[in-house]
């Protein structure tokens, strides 16, 4: 048993959709969340920049002595997971591989589509992960850059603007008769109902956040690292900017109120004295 926390980081709010699943699946685990709200979005940034930011966020969480770190940002998982795994002294789980594995299981050799930010799609990370599992698998990719701002504006699935945007982006996938769609961004589950309504009931939708949470539970159980507590775990939230907005909008992702959010000044997450020695 291991009562150290699970650390989760993301470029902003979206990783809270992963935290929601973690709290449902592992209610006794303590969680530490760091959202880089000052530098969001990561989806339009270069690989070196994303890797630098991801290492800084992960380095900040190391002060809490986590037993595992979740890179809840699809862009960071796509562009920086290798660096994180190499540099950090604790296991790191990203959101790409669990989502890819679930998609292959559901596809039965029929077409899979991945939707995500431009950086995630351009990285080809989901395509590589899927074809590592199933080399002959047909995979379509579709960037949907407006989905994130629509979610952060608080627009609901029945909003005509959301429905029009969903139809505009996903019409090519509908024409290609895909059978599985991977939500390759942690914001996208909040648009799931609109996506499902447009694509139809015969299309399987994979929430990478849920699959990642299942992977975390499996890893901890396999390594004897589950919490021994029999009470609900705690959650501590940290952001690099605008905690009030994070508290307000983040409650939609988490599906529960967020009481305490601490603002982290830049010198606290870029200060090498706080990073693991491997990152100095």
Features:
280 residues; alpha/beta; Rossmann fold; 2 domains; six-stranded parallel sheet; four-stranded parallel sheet; globular
Radius of gyration: 18 Å
How much of the sequence is in beta strands?
Answer: 15-25%
Main pleated-sheet profile:
6 strands, parallel
Question: What characteristic shape results from the CA principal axes?
Answer: globular
The strands making up the biggest β-sheet line up spatially as: 4-3-1-2-9-10
Q: What's the helix-strand series?
A: EHEHEHEHEHHEHHEHEHEHEH
Question: How many domains is the backbone divided into?
Answer: 2
User: Could you tell me the mean pLDDT?
Assistant: 92
CATH topology of the largest domain: Rossmann fold
Which residues form runs of ≥5 with pLDDT under 50? 272-280
């Amino acid at each position: 048993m291991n009562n150290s926390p699970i650390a989760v980081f993301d470029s902003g709010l979206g990783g809270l959709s992963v935290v929601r699943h973690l709290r449902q699946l592992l209610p006794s685990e303590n969680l530490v969340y760091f959202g880089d709200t000052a530098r969001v979005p990561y989806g339009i940034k270069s690989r070196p920049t994303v890797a630098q930011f991801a290492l800084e966020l992960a380095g900040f969480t190391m002060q809490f002595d986590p037993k595992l770190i979740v890179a809840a940002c699809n862009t960071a998982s796509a562009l920086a997971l290798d660096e994180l795994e190499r540099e950090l002294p604790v296991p790191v789980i990203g959101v790409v591989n669990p989502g890819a594995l679930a998609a292959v299981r559901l596809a039965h050799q029929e077409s899979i589509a991945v939707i995500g930010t431009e950086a995630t799609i351009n990285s080809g990370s989901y395509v590589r992960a899927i074809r590592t599992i199933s080399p002959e698998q047909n995979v379509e990719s579709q960037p949907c850059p407006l989905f994130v701002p629509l979610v952060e504006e608080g627009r609901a699935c029945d909003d005509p603007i959301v429905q029009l945007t969903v139809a505009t982006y996903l019409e090519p996938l509908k024409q290609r008769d895909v059978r599985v769609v991977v939500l390759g961004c942690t914001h996208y589950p909040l648009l799931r109902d609109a996506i499902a309504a447009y694509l139809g009931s015969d299309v399987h939708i994979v929430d990478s956040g849920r699959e990642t949470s299942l992977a975390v539970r499996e890893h901890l159980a396999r390594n004897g690292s589950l919490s021994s507590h029999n009470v609900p775990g705690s959650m501590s939230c940290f952001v690099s900017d605008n905690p009030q907005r994070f508290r307000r909008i983040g409650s939609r992702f988490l599906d529960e109120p967020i009481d305490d959010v601490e603002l982290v000044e830049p010198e606290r997450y870029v200060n090498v004295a706080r990073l693991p020695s491997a990152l100095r």
